[in-house]
Amino acid sequence: MKSRFNIGHVVSGGAHTLLIGYVLFGGVFSSEPEPPVVTGVDIISTEQFERILNADRPPLTADDVETPVAPEISEAPPEVVTEPDPVTPPAPPKAATAPEPEVTPEVEPPVEQPVELTDTAPEITPPAEPDVAPDQSVRPVSRPVTRVAPEAVETPEPDVQIADVDQAPTAPAESETESIEAQEETAREEAAPEIPTEPKSGAVTSSIRPKARPNRPTPPATPAENDTQAAETQTESRESSVNDALAQALAETPAAPSGPPLTSGEKDALRVSVQECWVVDVGSQAANVTVTVAMSLDRDGKVVGGSLRRLSATGGDENAANAAFESARRAILRCQRGGYKLPIEKYDHWRDVEITFNPEKMRRR
Predict the structure, then answer these.
(1) Top-ranked range on mean pLDDT: pick from 52-61, 170-179, 207-216, 266-275
(2) Which tens digit of pLDDT belongs to each residue from 276-293?
(3) Quick one: where's region Disordered (predicted)?
(4) CATH class of the domain defined by 281-364
């Protein structure tokens, strides 16, 4: 009980102490009051207030719109109003008179003087000839060539003979056994130790090449020479004619092939072998060309190199014929392979073969 009583006293005393302290010292911790807000007010009348309100509102639209009444048109003709006479403006004041132009004095044309006619023609002075380069240069005069020698030699006298060594004149020796001619005085040609340099000259250094000299006419041959030449010509012509006759006889009589000829089956086999590799271009002009090709075969049935040749071609121009021949040549070379299978005992008959390539029908002859 005693402890509870003490607690109540303490609480009561503390509360009273706080209250008394707040009353005494509460004004120290309070802030100053804020100043009052003052607003300016104007006094206006009611009419002014309504005008201010109506100014902010949009204008009211009238619901009832009055339709305008059309004016009455009178049937009477309108009165003609006479226009007043136009008023002519006053004439502008005359401008000041312009000054008169100055009168230029008339110039009299010059009077032509009469020309005196004479029978003598006036002298005409020829124009000065222009400097034209000549077509042919003037042949230059040969100048003395300076001879170069180890020792300088003076110019000899004009009547002294030029020689390689200087020699004094000798008198002729009077002797009965030998006659020795008197030796004339000789002197060496003028020479200089150095080649003098010649100054540059504007003369032409080359001239036009002269025309070739015409051939001399051949002297007429003597009658003996003419007879000899005629005999030699006849002998040569006789020998050449004999050789030509022998060559023609050998060419016209070839050796007859030995053995039996080829049968139709062997010919067809060769034709079919070549035909397998023959390609004809239907769209080209070569498809209309019939060409005959000749060739030579060896004993193995192979084409001899360089023996393929064109004998004839019909049905087109030269370009088409060449194209057809090339196609036939390729077919022959492509199909020979190891050689055409032909009987060796009949080699003399198929050594030289001619084949006609016809786009419509291929045949062998």
Answers:
(1) 266-275
(2) 888 888 888 888 899 999
(3) 71-246
(4) alpha beta
Looking up tokens 């719109």, which residue turns up?
A: 65
* Helix/strand/coil (H/E/C) assignment for every residue in the chain: CHHHHHHHHHHHHHHHHHHHHHHHHHHHHCCCCCCCCCCCCCCCCHHHHHHHHHHHCCCCCCCCCCCCCCCCCCCCCCCCCCCCCCCCCCCCCCCCCCCCCCCCCCCCCCCCCCCCCCCCCCCCCCCCCCCCCCCCCCCCCCCCCCEECCCCECCCCCCCEEECCCECCCCCCCCCCCCCCCCCCEEECCEECCCCCCCCCCCCCCCCCCCCCCCCCCCCCCHHHHHHHHHHHHHHHHHHHHHHHHHHHHHHCCCCCCCCCCCHHHHHHHHHHHHCCCCCCCCCHHHHCEEEEEEEECCCCCECCCCCEEEEEECCCHHHHHHHHHHHHHHHHHHHCCCCCCCHHHHHHHCEEEEEECCCCCEEC
Q: Would the pTM of this model clear 0.85, i.e. be above it?
A: no
| Nearest alpha carbon to residue 138 among 208, 211, 213 | 208
**pLDDT, tens digit (0-9, with 9 covering 90-100), for 294-339:** 999 999 999 998 899 999 999 889 999 999 999 999 999 998 888 8
Backbone angles phi, psi at 352, to 5 degrees: -110, 120
